[in-house]
Amino acid sequence: IIVQVICTVCFLAVNTFYVRSSFDFLKADDMGEINQTLVSEFLFLGLSGYPKIEIIYFALILVMYLVILIGNGVLIIASILDSRLHTPMYFFLGNLSFLDICYTSSSVPSTLVSLISKKRNISFSGCAVQMFFGFAMGSTECLLLGMMAFDRYVAICNPLRYPIIMSKVAYVLMASVSWLSGGINSVVQTLLAVRLPFCGNNIINHFTCEILAILKLACADISLNIITMVISNMAFLVLPLMVIFFSYMFILYTILQMNSAIGRRKAFSTCSAHLTVVIIFYGTILFLYAKPKSQDLTGEEKLQASDKLISLFYGVVTPMLNPIIYSLRNKDVKAAVKYLLNKKPVH
């Protein structure tokens, strides 16, 4: 976790340098030679140079998307219908599942269409909507993961005060603040991006309207975008990660003070699923954005295959793994799912 904190700070610096260097490169070109006709649509480069791989990607993404819808949908239904799951932890888990469905549904269908029909264009407004949902869901997920870590901290370190601190009003308010903050952050970032003029290259070397790839296509000063993105990264990436880090430090200290081996195992088991999701989520972000060249496109350059696999992993595989991780490592969730599937009372 300490390494993750350090890497996240490094990511902010790399992210800032990378986007700024892209704009400096654009300014170095002869701006008089750029077509001043404003861009009305964007084209996804995707895997246009690998037609055979496109078919494989289409099948993989389709299967994983169906798993995302079914897995997260079952978790949401289970958390609503099973009274034993009416706790803060499962309430946050239900929000996380709904978020994963929204995030993937904003980008995966268009990706599937582009892979199977070769229709790779997206309108300017459609790209803005996709960018908004992607940024909103990502920001909200970071905050929700931080809230879930705090919930585990209170449950393990202050079990007697847990019903008071994590009351229904408190955890509903925490989730609402996460959604509202993520939405506001996305509105700000999206508005700052769409206000920019795009008068040159309109080819996005990505599967979706990823904001860094979009900013590289702008033919105007993006200093304000860089500043707001750094502030956003600090608030929605580093701050929740610090909450997670300190929560688990206190949790680890409390667990080590327990005399009962059974108690220690039970405490570890309640945190293992959440910690696994955190490592996958933040680890994938760091791998995805740690390479400035992975987003360096001019319309003719191509991302390396490993970068595109990482992009796929972050956008599809991670939301698919969340319900699997929580269902496999949680007895209550498994029992609730069995109840839904078998429609038999769970004793």
UniProtKB/TrEMBL annotation:
Subcellular location(s) per record: Cell membrane
Q: Which family does it belong to?
A: Belongs to the G-protein coupled receptor 1 family.
What membrane topology does this protein have?
Multi-pass membrane protein
Name the source's superkingdom.
Eukaryota
Q: PANTHER family this protein is in?
A: OLFACTORY RECEPTOR
Sorted UniProt keywords: Cell membrane, G-protein coupled receptor, Membrane, Olfaction, Receptor, Sensory transduction, Transducer, Transmembrane, Transmembrane helix
Q: What are its GO biological-process terms?
A: detection of chemical stimulus involved in sensory perception of smell
Tell me the InterPro entries matching this sequence. GPCR_Rhodpsn, GPCR_Rhodpsn_7TM, Olfact_rcpt
Q: Which residues form the G-protein coupled receptors family 1 profile domain?
A: 71-326
Question: In the record, what terms sit under GO molecular function?
Answer: G protein-coupled receptor activity; olfactory receptor activity
By what name is this protein known? Answer: Olfactory receptor
GO cellular component annotations, sorted alphabetically?
nucleoplasm; plasma membrane
The record, for PROSITE patterns, names: G_PROTEIN_RECEP_F1_1, G_PROTEIN_RECEP_F1_2
The portions of this protein that span the membrane are 55-78, 90-108, 128-148, 169-188, 234-256, 268-289, 309-328
Instruction: Identify the main location.
Output: membrane
Briefly state the protein's biological role.
Odorant receptor.
